[in-house]
Protein backbone atom coordinates (compact mmCIF):
# COMPACT_ATOMS: atom_id res chain seq x y z
CA UNK A 1 0.00 0.00 0.00
CA UNK A 2 2.70 2.50 0.99
CA UNK A 3 4.64 1.65 -2.14
CA UNK A 4 1.64 2.71 -4.18
CA UNK A 5 1.52 6.02 -2.34
CA UNK A 6 5.22 6.64 -2.89
CA UNK A 7 4.88 5.86 -6.59
CA UNK A 8 1.87 8.14 -6.87
CA UNK A 9 3.70 10.97 -5.15
CA UNK A 10 6.66 10.52 -7.44
CA UNK A 11 4.43 10.68 -10.51
CA UNK A 12 2.79 13.92 -9.40
CA UNK A 13 6.09 15.43 -8.31
CA UNK A 14 7.61 14.76 -11.71
CA UNK A 15 4.59 16.25 -13.45
CA UNK A 16 4.71 19.38 -11.33
CA UNK A 17 8.45 19.70 -11.92
CA UNK A 18 7.93 19.41 -15.68
CA UNK A 19 5.20 22.04 -15.51
CA UNK A 20 7.52 24.43 -13.69
CA UNK A 21 10.31 23.79 -16.19
CA UNK A 22 7.97 24.53 -19.10
CA UNK A 23 6.09 27.49 -17.65
CA UNK A 24 8.77 29.31 -15.68
CA UNK A 25 10.79 30.67 -18.66
CA UNK A 26 7.56 31.78 -20.32
CA UNK A 27 6.10 33.28 -17.16
CA UNK A 28 9.24 35.31 -16.51
CA UNK A 29 9.02 36.73 -20.03
CA UNK A 30 5.45 37.84 -19.34
CA UNK A 31 6.59 39.49 -16.09
CA UNK A 32 9.47 41.21 -17.85
CA UNK A 33 7.22 42.50 -20.59
CA UNK A 34 5.18 44.38 -17.97
CA UNK A 35 8.13 46.09 -16.31
CA UNK A 36 9.22 49.66 -16.93
CA UNK A 37 12.69 50.63 -18.08
CA UNK A 38 13.41 51.91 -14.57
CA UNK A 39 12.39 48.65 -12.96
CA UNK A 40 14.64 46.76 -15.38
CA UNK A 41 17.58 49.02 -14.51
CA UNK A 42 17.01 48.52 -10.77
CA UNK A 43 18.19 44.95 -11.24
CA UNK A 44 15.97 43.35 -8.66
CA UNK A 45 16.21 40.02 -10.46
CA UNK A 46 14.17 38.34 -13.14
CA UNK A 47 11.59 36.94 -10.74
CA UNK A 48 10.51 40.21 -9.17
CA UNK A 49 7.00 41.41 -9.87
CA UNK A 50 6.42 44.52 -11.98
CA UNK A 51 5.04 47.52 -10.11
CA UNK A 52 2.04 47.84 -12.37
CA UNK A 53 0.57 44.61 -13.68
CA UNK A 54 -1.36 46.52 -16.34
CA UNK A 55 1.59 48.37 -17.82
CA UNK A 56 1.16 47.64 -21.54
CA UNK A 57 3.52 50.39 -22.64
CA UNK A 58 6.11 47.90 -23.92
CA UNK A 59 3.52 46.15 -26.03
CA UNK A 60 2.67 49.39 -27.77
CA UNK A 61 6.36 50.06 -28.41
CA UNK A 62 6.97 46.53 -29.69
CA UNK A 63 3.89 46.59 -31.87
CA UNK A 64 4.60 49.97 -33.44
CA UNK A 65 8.38 50.21 -33.61
CA UNK A 66 8.73 46.53 -34.39
CA UNK A 67 6.32 46.90 -37.32
CA UNK A 68 4.39 43.94 -36.06
CA UNK A 69 1.26 44.92 -37.93
CA UNK A 70 2.86 44.48 -41.35
CA UNK A 71 4.56 41.34 -40.07
CA UNK A 72 1.22 39.80 -39.11
CA UNK A 73 -0.23 40.88 -42.48
CA UNK A 74 2.62 39.30 -44.46
CA UNK A 75 2.38 36.14 -42.41
CA UNK A 76 -1.37 36.02 -43.03
CA UNK A 77 -0.96 36.36 -46.80
CA UNK A 78 1.68 33.63 -46.92
CA UNK A 79 -0.43 31.42 -44.66
CA UNK A 80 -3.56 31.70 -46.81
CA UNK A 81 -1.78 31.00 -50.09
CA UNK A 82 0.58 28.31 -48.83
CA UNK A 83 -2.04 26.43 -46.83
CA UNK A 84 -4.73 26.46 -49.50
CA UNK A 85 -2.13 25.52 -52.11
CA UNK A 86 -0.95 22.64 -49.97
CA UNK A 87 -4.51 21.40 -49.48
CA UNK A 88 -5.28 21.57 -53.18
CA UNK A 89 -2.03 19.99 -54.32
CA UNK A 90 -2.01 17.31 -51.66
CA UNK A 91 -5.59 16.24 -52.28
CA UNK A 92 -5.16 16.20 -56.06
CA UNK A 93 -2.01 14.11 -55.83
CA UNK A 94 -3.65 11.68 -53.44
CA UNK A 95 -6.71 11.37 -55.66
CA UNK A 96 -4.67 10.74 -58.80
CA UNK A 97 -2.41 8.19 -57.13
CA UNK A 98 -5.15 6.28 -55.36
CA UNK A 99 -7.95 6.26 -57.93
CA UNK A 100 -6.17 5.77 -61.25
CA UNK A 101 -3.97 3.11 -62.71
CA UNK A 102 -1.67 4.66 -65.23
CA UNK A 103 1.73 4.16 -66.70
CA UNK A 104 4.65 5.33 -64.50
CA UNK A 105 2.36 5.37 -61.46
CA UNK A 106 4.97 3.51 -59.44
CA UNK A 107 7.65 5.94 -60.57
CA UNK A 108 5.55 8.90 -59.46
CA UNK A 109 4.97 7.28 -56.08
CA UNK A 110 8.68 6.56 -55.73
CA UNK A 111 9.51 10.17 -56.54
CA UNK A 112 7.29 11.42 -53.72
CA UNK A 113 8.55 8.73 -51.35
CA UNK A 114 12.25 9.39 -51.91
CA UNK A 115 11.68 13.12 -51.50
CA UNK A 116 10.69 12.56 -47.84
CA UNK A 117 14.18 11.32 -47.12
CA UNK A 118 15.80 14.60 -48.21
CA UNK A 119 15.81 17.15 -45.41
CA UNK A 120 14.96 20.58 -46.83
CA UNK A 121 17.84 22.35 -45.15
CA UNK A 122 20.44 20.32 -47.02
CA UNK A 123 19.42 21.47 -50.47
CA UNK A 124 18.80 25.10 -49.50
CA UNK A 125 21.91 26.49 -51.18
CA UNK A 126 20.90 25.14 -54.58
CA UNK A 127 17.22 25.92 -54.02
CA UNK A 128 18.22 29.48 -53.29
CA UNK A 129 19.94 29.84 -56.70
CA UNK A 130 16.90 28.37 -58.38
CA UNK A 131 14.38 30.63 -56.65
CA UNK A 132 16.65 33.54 -57.46
CA UNK A 133 16.70 32.65 -61.15
CA UNK A 134 12.89 32.63 -61.18
CA UNK A 135 12.97 36.22 -59.95
CA UNK A 136 11.08 35.20 -56.82
CA UNK A 137 13.85 36.21 -54.40
CA UNK A 138 12.71 38.88 -51.96
CA UNK A 139 9.03 38.51 -52.83
CA UNK A 140 6.25 36.83 -50.91
CA UNK A 141 6.13 34.20 -53.66
CA UNK A 142 9.36 32.53 -52.64
CA UNK A 143 8.09 31.16 -49.31
CA UNK A 144 4.66 30.44 -50.76
CA UNK A 145 6.12 28.32 -53.57
CA UNK A 146 8.55 26.58 -51.24
CA UNK A 147 5.94 25.71 -48.62
CA UNK A 148 3.62 24.39 -51.31
CA UNK A 149 6.19 22.49 -53.27
CA UNK A 150 7.89 20.52 -50.57
CA UNK A 151 5.13 19.23 -48.37
CA UNK A 152 5.05 15.48 -48.69
CA UNK A 153 3.50 14.86 -45.27
CA UNK A 154 0.20 16.37 -46.34
CA UNK A 155 0.11 14.14 -49.42
CA UNK A 156 0.41 11.12 -47.11
CA UNK A 157 -2.36 12.34 -44.85
CA UNK A 158 -4.66 12.87 -47.83
CA UNK A 159 -3.72 9.52 -49.30
CA UNK A 160 -4.76 7.74 -46.12
CA UNK A 161 -8.14 9.45 -46.23
CA UNK A 162 -8.79 9.02 -49.94
CA UNK A 163 -8.16 5.32 -49.45
CA UNK A 164 -10.82 5.13 -46.78
CA UNK A 165 -13.47 6.62 -49.09
CA UNK A 166 -15.30 3.70 -50.70
CA UNK A 167 -14.75 3.27 -54.42
CA UNK A 168 -18.46 2.57 -54.87
CA UNK A 169 -19.16 6.27 -54.36
CA UNK A 170 -16.96 7.14 -57.33
CA UNK A 171 -18.46 4.40 -59.43
CA UNK A 172 -22.06 5.34 -58.91
CA UNK A 173 -21.24 8.96 -59.66
CA UNK A 174 -19.50 7.88 -62.82
CA UNK A 175 -22.58 5.97 -63.90
CA UNK A 176 -24.51 9.18 -63.43
CA UNK A 177 -22.23 10.77 -65.97
CA UNK A 178 -19.80 12.53 -63.64
CA UNK A 179 -16.26 12.87 -64.95
CA UNK A 180 -13.09 12.63 -62.87
CA UNK A 181 -13.07 16.35 -62.05
CA UNK A 182 -16.65 16.38 -60.89
CA UNK A 183 -15.97 13.33 -58.74
CA UNK A 184 -12.94 15.01 -57.19
CA UNK A 185 -14.77 18.27 -56.62
CA UNK A 186 -18.15 16.98 -55.49
CA UNK A 187 -17.34 13.72 -53.72
CA UNK A 188 -13.72 13.32 -52.73
CA UNK A 189 -12.89 16.88 -51.68
CA UNK A 190 -15.94 17.36 -49.38
CA UNK A 191 -15.32 13.98 -47.76
CA UNK A 192 -11.72 14.94 -47.05
CA UNK A 193 -12.77 17.55 -44.46
CA UNK A 194 -11.10 15.88 -41.46
CA UNK A 195 -7.88 15.46 -43.42
CA UNK A 196 -8.08 19.06 -44.57
CA UNK A 197 -8.47 20.20 -40.97
CA UNK A 198 -5.38 18.20 -40.03
CA UNK A 199 -3.30 19.59 -42.89
CA UNK A 200 -4.45 23.16 -42.27
CA UNK A 201 -3.44 22.93 -38.61
CA UNK A 202 -0.09 21.20 -39.10
CA UNK A 203 0.88 23.33 -42.09
CA UNK A 204 -0.46 26.51 -40.55
CA UNK A 205 1.68 26.11 -37.45
CA UNK A 206 4.76 25.25 -39.50
CA UNK A 207 4.33 28.31 -41.71
CA UNK A 208 3.54 30.65 -38.81
CA UNK A 209 6.65 29.60 -36.94
CA UNK A 210 9.13 29.13 -39.74
CA UNK A 211 12.22 31.30 -39.57
CA UNK A 212 14.69 29.77 -42.02
CA UNK A 213 12.86 30.30 -45.31
CA UNK A 214 11.63 33.90 -44.79
CA UNK A 215 15.01 34.79 -43.29
CA UNK A 216 16.89 33.55 -46.37
CA UNK A 217 14.44 34.54 -49.07
CA UNK A 218 12.89 37.81 -47.91
CA UNK A 219 15.58 40.09 -46.49
CA UNK A 220 13.63 43.32 -47.18
CA UNK A 221 12.39 44.96 -44.04
CA UNK A 222 8.86 45.53 -45.33
CA UNK A 223 8.56 41.83 -46.16
CA UNK A 224 9.14 40.78 -42.57
CA UNK A 225 6.97 37.95 -41.28
CA UNK A 226 6.49 37.54 -37.57
CA UNK A 227 9.64 35.45 -37.03
CA UNK A 228 11.95 37.68 -39.03
CA UNK A 229 10.43 40.88 -37.62
CA UNK A 230 10.85 39.56 -34.11
CA UNK A 231 14.42 38.55 -34.94
CA UNK A 232 15.14 42.15 -35.94
CA UNK A 233 14.31 43.21 -32.35
CA UNK A 234 17.81 42.04 -31.51
CA UNK A 235 19.27 45.12 -33.17
CA UNK A 236 17.38 48.26 -32.10
CA UNK A 237 16.18 46.96 -28.74
CA UNK A 238 19.50 45.24 -27.96
CA UNK A 239 19.40 45.33 -24.17
CA UNK A 240 15.78 46.42 -23.79
CA UNK A 241 14.52 43.12 -22.50
CA UNK A 242 11.17 44.59 -21.57
CA UNK A 243 10.44 45.42 -25.25
CA UNK A 244 11.89 42.19 -26.62
CA UNK A 245 9.79 40.25 -24.10
CA UNK A 246 6.67 42.11 -25.14
CA UNK A 247 7.41 41.25 -28.79
CA UNK A 248 7.90 37.58 -27.93
CA UNK A 249 4.63 37.51 -25.99
CA UNK A 250 2.83 39.16 -28.92
CA UNK A 251 4.08 36.39 -31.19
CA UNK A 252 3.30 33.56 -28.76
CA UNK A 253 -0.20 34.80 -27.86
CA UNK A 254 -1.97 33.83 -31.12
CA UNK A 255 -0.43 30.34 -30.86
CA UNK A 256 -1.69 30.00 -27.29
CA UNK A 257 -5.20 31.07 -28.25
CA UNK A 258 -5.28 28.70 -31.22
CA UNK A 259 -3.94 25.89 -29.06
CA UNK A 260 -6.47 26.37 -26.28
CA UNK A 261 -9.41 26.53 -28.65
CA UNK A 262 -8.35 23.71 -30.98
CA UNK A 263 -6.48 21.49 -28.51
CA UNK A 264 -7.97 18.16 -29.49
CA UNK A 265 -7.59 18.74 -33.22
CA UNK A 266 -4.03 19.90 -32.79
CA UNK A 267 -3.00 16.74 -30.95
CA UNK A 268 -4.70 14.56 -33.52
CA UNK A 269 -3.20 16.58 -36.33
CA UNK A 270 0.31 16.10 -35.07
CA UNK A 271 -0.14 12.43 -34.41
CA UNK A 272 -1.42 11.91 -37.94
CA UNK A 273 1.02 14.32 -39.46
CA UNK A 274 4.17 13.00 -37.92
CA UNK A 275 3.62 9.27 -37.89
CA UNK A 276 3.14 9.27 -41.61
CA UNK B 1 -15.76 18.43 -31.10
CA UNK B 2 -18.74 20.16 -32.67
CA UNK B 3 -16.82 20.70 -35.87
CA UNK B 4 -16.11 17.06 -36.25
CA UNK B 5 -19.70 16.07 -35.57
CA UNK B 6 -20.92 18.59 -38.13
CA UNK B 7 -18.52 17.22 -40.70
CA UNK B 8 -19.83 13.72 -40.20
CA UNK B 9 -23.41 14.82 -40.61
CA UNK B 10 -22.73 16.50 -43.92
CA UNK B 11 -22.16 13.36 -45.94
CA UNK B 12 -23.42 13.68 -49.51
CA UNK B 13 -26.88 12.33 -50.18
CA UNK B 14 -26.85 8.72 -51.36
CA UNK B 15 -26.55 8.56 -55.10
CA UNK B 16 -29.38 6.92 -57.02
CA UNK B 17 -28.44 3.42 -58.04
CA UNK B 18 -28.54 2.46 -61.67
CA UNK B 19 -28.60 -1.01 -63.14
CA UNK B 20 -27.33 0.10 -66.55
CA UNK B 21 -23.97 -1.60 -67.11
CA UNK B 22 -21.39 0.54 -68.91
CA UNK B 23 -20.41 -0.76 -72.31
CA UNK B 24 -16.79 -0.67 -73.46
CA UNK B 25 -15.79 3.00 -73.55
CA UNK B 26 -15.26 4.55 -76.98
CA UNK B 27 -11.71 5.34 -78.04
CA UNK B 28 -11.81 9.04 -77.34
CA UNK B 29 -13.05 8.41 -73.86
CA UNK B 30 -10.30 5.88 -73.27
CA UNK B 31 -7.67 8.37 -74.37
CA UNK B 32 -9.23 10.99 -72.12
CA UNK B 33 -9.11 8.57 -69.24
CA UNK B 34 -5.42 7.98 -69.81
CA UNK B 35 -4.66 11.69 -69.63
CA UNK B 36 -6.85 12.48 -66.60
CA UNK B 37 -4.48 11.40 -63.81
CA UNK B 38 -1.72 13.48 -65.34
CA UNK B 39 -3.94 16.55 -65.29
CA UNK B 40 -4.20 16.14 -61.53
CA UNK B 41 -0.50 15.44 -61.15
CA UNK B 42 0.93 18.14 -63.36
CA UNK B 43 1.15 20.86 -60.69
CA UNK B 44 2.36 18.64 -57.83
CA UNK B 45 4.96 16.94 -59.99
CA UNK B 46 6.19 20.23 -61.42
CA UNK B 47 6.64 21.60 -57.90
CA UNK B 48 8.29 18.40 -56.68
CA UNK B 49 10.77 18.30 -59.55
CA UNK B 50 11.53 22.03 -59.34
CA UNK B 51 11.92 22.39 -55.61
CA UNK B 52 13.25 19.00 -54.57
CA UNK B 53 14.95 17.18 -57.41
CA UNK B 54 16.38 20.05 -59.46
CA UNK B 55 18.15 21.48 -56.39
CA UNK B 56 19.65 18.09 -55.55
CA UNK B 57 21.04 17.72 -59.08
CA UNK B 58 22.32 21.30 -59.12
CA UNK B 59 23.82 20.94 -55.68
CA UNK B 60 25.79 17.87 -56.69
CA UNK B 61 26.97 19.69 -59.81
CA UNK B 62 28.02 22.81 -57.84
CA UNK B 63 29.88 20.70 -55.32
CA UNK B 64 32.50 19.86 -57.93
CA UNK B 65 33.12 23.50 -58.84
CA UNK B 66 34.60 26.60 -57.28
CA UNK B 67 31.53 28.71 -58.04
CA UNK B 68 31.00 31.77 -55.85
CA UNK B 69 27.29 31.91 -56.59
CA UNK B 70 27.45 35.25 -58.39
CA UNK B 71 29.97 35.39 -61.22
CA UNK B 72 29.14 33.68 -64.50
CA UNK B 73 32.48 31.91 -64.33
CA UNK B 74 32.91 28.61 -62.61
CA UNK B 75 35.65 26.04 -62.81
CA UNK B 76 35.51 22.35 -62.41
CA UNK B 77 37.64 21.42 -59.43
CA UNK B 78 36.96 17.72 -59.19
CA UNK B 79 36.82 16.46 -55.63
CA UNK B 80 38.67 19.55 -54.37
CA UNK B 81 35.82 20.78 -52.18
CA UNK B 82 35.41 17.39 -50.59
CA UNK B 83 39.10 17.10 -49.75
CA UNK B 84 38.98 20.61 -48.31
CA UNK B 85 36.00 19.63 -46.15
CA UNK B 86 37.69 16.53 -44.85
CA UNK B 87 41.11 18.05 -44.27
CA UNK B 88 40.25 21.39 -42.66
CA UNK B 89 39.50 20.44 -39.07
CA UNK B 90 37.65 23.68 -38.33
CA UNK B 91 35.08 22.74 -40.98
CA UNK B 92 34.65 19.36 -39.40
CA UNK B 93 34.24 20.57 -35.83
CA UNK B 94 30.57 21.28 -36.39
CA UNK B 95 29.90 17.56 -36.17
CA UNK B 96 31.06 17.51 -32.56
CA UNK B 97 28.43 20.13 -31.84
CA UNK B 98 25.84 17.72 -33.22
CA UNK B 99 26.95 15.33 -30.48
CA UNK B 100 25.43 17.63 -27.85
CA UNK B 101 22.12 17.61 -29.68
CA UNK B 102 22.24 13.85 -30.12
CA UNK B 103 22.74 13.41 -26.38
CA UNK B 104 19.89 15.85 -25.82
CA UNK B 105 17.64 13.80 -28.11
CA UNK B 106 18.29 10.71 -26.05
CA UNK B 107 17.27 12.56 -22.90
CA UNK B 108 14.27 13.97 -24.72
CA UNK B 109 13.07 10.55 -25.89
CA UNK B 110 13.38 9.09 -22.38
CA UNK B 111 11.49 12.01 -20.83
CA UNK B 112 8.79 11.87 -23.50
CA UNK B 113 8.38 8.12 -23.03
CA UNK B 114 8.10 8.52 -19.26
CA UNK B 115 5.47 11.25 -19.42
CA UNK B 116 3.53 9.56 -22.22
CA UNK B 117 3.37 6.37 -20.16
CA UNK B 118 2.22 7.96 -16.92
CA UNK B 119 -0.25 10.26 -18.65
CA UNK B 120 -1.89 7.44 -20.54
CA UNK B 121 -3.05 6.01 -17.23
CA UNK B 122 -5.41 7.73 -14.86
CA UNK B 123 -3.89 10.90 -13.50
CA UNK B 124 -5.60 13.98 -12.17
CA UNK B 125 -5.43 17.14 -14.35
CA UNK B 126 -4.37 14.90 -17.23
CA UNK B 127 -5.34 17.34 -19.96
CA UNK B 128 -3.63 20.23 -18.25
CA UNK B 129 -0.34 18.34 -18.03
CA UNK B 130 -0.64 17.13 -21.61
CA UNK B 131 -1.19 20.67 -22.81
CA UNK B 132 1.70 22.04 -20.80
CA UNK B 133 4.11 19.41 -22.09
CA UNK B 134 3.11 19.81 -25.73
CA UNK B 135 2.74 23.57 -25.96
CA UNK B 136 6.45 24.48 -26.30
CA UNK B 137 6.58 22.61 -29.61
CA UNK B 138 4.04 25.04 -31.07
CA UNK B 139 5.91 28.20 -30.10
CA UNK B 140 7.74 30.30 -32.64
CA UNK B 141 11.47 29.52 -32.72
CA UNK B 142 12.57 33.14 -32.57
CA UNK B 143 10.37 33.72 -29.53
CA UNK B 144 11.90 30.65 -27.88
CA UNK B 145 15.34 31.98 -28.72
CA UNK B 146 14.61 35.25 -26.92
CA UNK B 147 12.91 33.56 -23.99
CA UNK B 148 16.02 31.50 -23.39
CA UNK B 149 18.49 34.28 -24.08
CA UNK B 150 16.87 35.99 -21.13
CA UNK B 151 16.78 32.70 -19.23
CA UNK B 152 20.56 32.24 -19.49
CA UNK B 153 21.46 35.94 -19.09
CA UNK B 154 23.57 37.11 -16.19
CA UNK B 155 20.97 37.83 -13.54
CA UNK B 156 18.33 36.29 -15.80
CA UNK B 157 15.74 33.65 -15.03
CA UNK B 158 18.13 30.80 -14.30
CA UNK B 159 20.41 32.81 -12.03
CA UNK B 160 17.42 34.22 -10.17
CA UNK B 161 15.96 30.77 -9.60
CA UNK B 162 19.30 29.44 -8.42
CA UNK B 163 19.71 32.30 -5.98
CA UNK B 164 16.32 31.40 -4.49
CA UNK B 165 18.00 28.18 -3.42
CA UNK B 166 21.00 30.08 -2.16
CA UNK B 167 23.21 29.20 -5.12
CA UNK B 168 25.02 32.24 -6.47
CA UNK B 169 26.99 31.80 -9.65
CA UNK B 170 28.84 34.30 -11.71
CA UNK B 171 28.81 31.73 -14.45
CA UNK B 172 28.18 33.04 -17.97
CA UNK B 173 25.98 30.24 -19.23
CA UNK B 174 26.63 31.00 -22.89
CA UNK B 175 30.26 31.92 -22.25
CA UNK B 176 32.25 28.74 -22.86
CA UNK B 177 31.73 26.24 -25.70
CA UNK B 178 30.81 23.34 -23.38
CA UNK B 179 28.38 25.28 -21.26
CA UNK B 180 26.93 27.15 -24.26
CA UNK B 181 26.30 23.98 -26.23
CA UNK B 182 24.83 22.23 -23.20
CA UNK B 183 22.53 25.19 -22.60
CA UNK B 184 21.43 25.28 -26.25
CA UNK B 185 20.85 21.54 -26.33
CA UNK B 186 18.78 21.99 -23.18
CA UNK B 187 16.60 24.49 -25.02
CA UNK B 188 16.15 21.92 -27.74
CA UNK B 189 14.96 19.37 -25.16
CA UNK B 190 12.52 21.96 -23.77
CA UNK B 191 11.21 22.64 -27.26
CA UNK B 192 10.87 19.19 -28.79
CA UNK B 193 10.00 16.83 -25.91
CA UNK B 194 6.34 17.70 -26.46
CA UNK B 195 6.32 16.44 -30.04
CA UNK B 196 7.83 13.09 -29.08
CA UNK B 197 5.45 12.94 -26.12
CA UNK B 198 2.37 13.37 -28.31
CA UNK B 199 3.59 10.80 -30.82
CA UNK B 200 4.21 8.26 -28.06
CA UNK B 201 0.87 9.08 -26.43
CA UNK B 202 -0.94 8.38 -29.69
CA UNK B 203 0.88 5.10 -30.13
CA UNK B 204 0.21 4.00 -26.55
CA UNK B 205 -3.48 4.80 -26.92
CA UNK B 206 -3.69 2.58 -29.96
CA UNK B 207 -2.67 -0.38 -27.78
CA UNK B 208 -5.93 -2.19 -26.92
CA UNK B 209 -6.98 -1.54 -23.31
CA UNK B 210 -7.90 -5.16 -22.60
CA UNK B 211 -4.23 -6.04 -22.69
CA UNK B 212 -3.55 -3.98 -19.57
CA UNK B 213 -6.52 -5.47 -17.75
CA UNK B 214 -5.42 -8.99 -18.62
CA UNK B 215 -1.89 -8.20 -17.53
CA UNK B 216 -3.09 -6.70 -14.26
CA UNK B 217 -5.08 -9.85 -13.54
CA UNK B 218 -1.89 -11.79 -14.10
CA UNK B 219 -0.23 -9.60 -11.49
CA UNK B 220 1.91 -7.45 -13.77
CA UNK B 221 3.02 -4.14 -12.32
CA UNK B 222 3.45 -0.88 -14.21
CA UNK B 223 7.02 -1.66 -15.21
CA UNK B 224 5.97 -5.06 -16.58
CA UNK B 225 3.14 -3.42 -18.47
CA UNK B 226 5.55 -0.93 -19.94
CA UNK B 227 8.17 -3.52 -20.78
CA UNK B 228 5.90 -6.16 -22.33
CA UNK B 229 2.91 -4.25 -23.66
CA UNK B 230 3.72 -0.61 -24.30
CA UNK B 231 7.30 -0.89 -25.54
CA UNK B 232 6.58 -3.47 -28.26
CA UNK B 233 3.37 -1.66 -29.17
CA UNK B 234 5.06 1.62 -29.95
CA UNK B 235 8.20 0.26 -31.62
CA UNK B 236 7.44 1.76 -35.05
CA UNK B 237 6.93 5.24 -33.59
CA UNK B 238 10.01 4.84 -31.43
CA UNK B 239 12.18 3.99 -34.41
CA UNK B 240 10.70 6.86 -36.39
CA UNK B 241 11.55 9.18 -33.51
CA UNK B 242 15.12 7.95 -33.39
CA UNK B 243 15.66 8.64 -37.08
CA UNK B 244 14.01 12.06 -36.81
CA UNK B 245 16.29 12.84 -33.88
CA UNK B 246 19.43 11.89 -35.79
CA UNK B 247 18.60 13.99 -38.82
CA UNK B 248 17.31 16.72 -36.52
CA UNK B 249 20.56 16.78 -34.53
CA UNK B 250 22.56 17.13 -37.73
CA UNK B 251 20.45 19.95 -39.11
CA UNK B 252 20.08 22.21 -36.06
CA UNK B 253 19.90 25.84 -37.12
CA UNK B 254 17.31 28.13 -35.58
CA UNK B 255 18.00 28.22 -31.87
CA UNK B 256 21.81 28.56 -31.95
CA UNK B 257 21.61 31.04 -34.84
CA UNK B 258 19.13 33.21 -32.98
CA UNK B 259 20.75 32.92 -29.58
CA UNK B 260 24.49 33.00 -30.25
CA UNK B 261 24.83 33.44 -34.01
CA UNK B 262 27.17 30.47 -33.90
CA UNK B 263 29.65 32.16 -31.56
CA UNK B 264 31.62 30.44 -28.76
CA UNK B 265 31.85 27.13 -30.56
CA UNK B 266 28.13 26.67 -31.06
CA UNK B 267 28.24 26.73 -34.85
CA UNK B 268 26.29 23.84 -36.30
CA UNK B 269 26.55 22.27 -39.72
CA UNK B 270 23.70 24.26 -41.19
CA UNK B 271 24.90 27.58 -39.73
CA UNK B 272 28.29 26.89 -41.26
CA UNK B 273 26.80 26.02 -44.64
CA UNK B 274 24.61 29.14 -44.63
CA UNK B 275 27.65 31.27 -43.75
CA UNK B 276 29.82 29.66 -46.42
CA UNK B 277 27.17 30.13 -49.06
CA UNK B 278 25.67 33.49 -48.24
CA UNK B 279 28.41 35.40 -46.41
CA UNK B 280 31.61 34.10 -47.97
CA UNK B 281 30.07 33.28 -51.37
CA UNK B 282 31.60 29.82 -51.42
CA UNK B 283 28.69 28.13 -53.13
CA UNK B 284 30.83 25.24 -54.34
CA UNK B 285 32.19 24.40 -50.91
CA UNK B 286 28.80 24.90 -49.25
CA UNK B 287 27.22 22.53 -51.76
CA UNK B 288 29.82 19.89 -51.04
CA UNK B 289 29.07 20.28 -47.32
CA UNK B 290 25.37 19.91 -48.01
CA UNK B 291 25.98 16.77 -50.07
CA UNK B 292 27.95 15.31 -47.15
CA UNK B 293 25.09 16.13 -44.76
CA UNK B 294 22.55 14.60 -47.12
CA UNK B 295 24.62 11.43 -47.45
CA UNK B 296 24.94 11.12 -43.67
CA UNK B 297 21.19 11.53 -43.19
CA UNK B 298 20.43 9.01 -45.94
CA UNK B 299 22.92 6.55 -44.45
CA UNK B 300 21.36 6.93 -41.00
CA UNK B 301 17.92 6.33 -42.45
CA UNK B 302 19.16 3.28 -44.32
CA UNK B 303 20.79 1.79 -41.23
CA UNK B 304 17.64 2.40 -39.21
CA UNK B 305 15.48 0.76 -41.88
CA UNK B 306 17.82 -2.24 -41.90
CA UNK B 307 17.56 -2.74 -38.17
CA UNK B 308 13.91 -1.89 -37.69
CA UNK B 309 12.12 -2.76 -40.91
CA UNK B 310 9.19 -0.41 -41.12
CA UNK B 311 6.37 -2.45 -42.54
CA UNK B 312 4.02 0.50 -42.37
CA UNK B 313 5.32 2.34 -45.40
CA UNK B 314 2.63 1.05 -47.70
CA UNK B 315 2.21 3.86 -50.15
CA UNK B 316 1.65 1.57 -53.11
Assembly state here?
heterodimer
How far the N terminus sits from the C terminus of chain A, by CA atoms, comes to 43 Å
Q: Mind telling me the C-alpha Rg of chain A?
A: 24 Å
How helical, in percent, are the residues of chain A?
Answer: over 70%
Using only C-alpha atoms, the radius of gyration of chain B works out to 26 Å
Relative strand content of chain B: under 5%
**Count of helical stretches of chain A:** 14
Low-confidence stretches of chain B at least 5 residues in length (pLDDT < 50)?
A: 1-21, 312-316
What's the β-strand tally of chain B?
Answer: 0
Biggest chain pair interface:
A-B, 107 and 108 residues
Class computed from helices, strands and strand pairing of chain A: mainly alpha
Which regions of chain A have little confidence, pLDDT < 50, spanning 5+ residues?
A: none
- Our count of helices of chain B gives 15
Reported for the largest beta sheet of chain B, the result is:
none
Largest sheet of chain A: none
By secondary-structure content and strand pairing, the structural class of chain B works out as mainly alpha
Rough shape of chain A?
globular
Average of pLDDT of chain B: 83
Give the terminus-to-terminus CA distance of chain B. Answer: 33 Å
Structural shape of chain B? globular
Helix content of chain B: 55-70%
Walk me through the topology.
The complex is a heterodimer of chains A (276) and B (316).
Chain A: H1 2-33, H2 37-42, H3 57-65, H4 68-99, H5 105-116, H6 124-133, H7 141-149, H8 152-164, H9 167-175, H10 180-191, H11 193-209, H12 212-217, H13 226-232, H14 241-275
Helix pairs in contact in A: 1-14, 3-14, 4-7, 4-8, 4-11, 4-13, 8-11, 9-10, 11-14
Chain B: H1 2-9, H2 27-62, H3 80-87, H4 89-92, H5 94-119, H6 126-138, H7 141-152, H8 157-164, H9 177-205, H10 210-217, H11 222-233, H12 235-250, H13 254-259, H14 269-278, H15 283-307
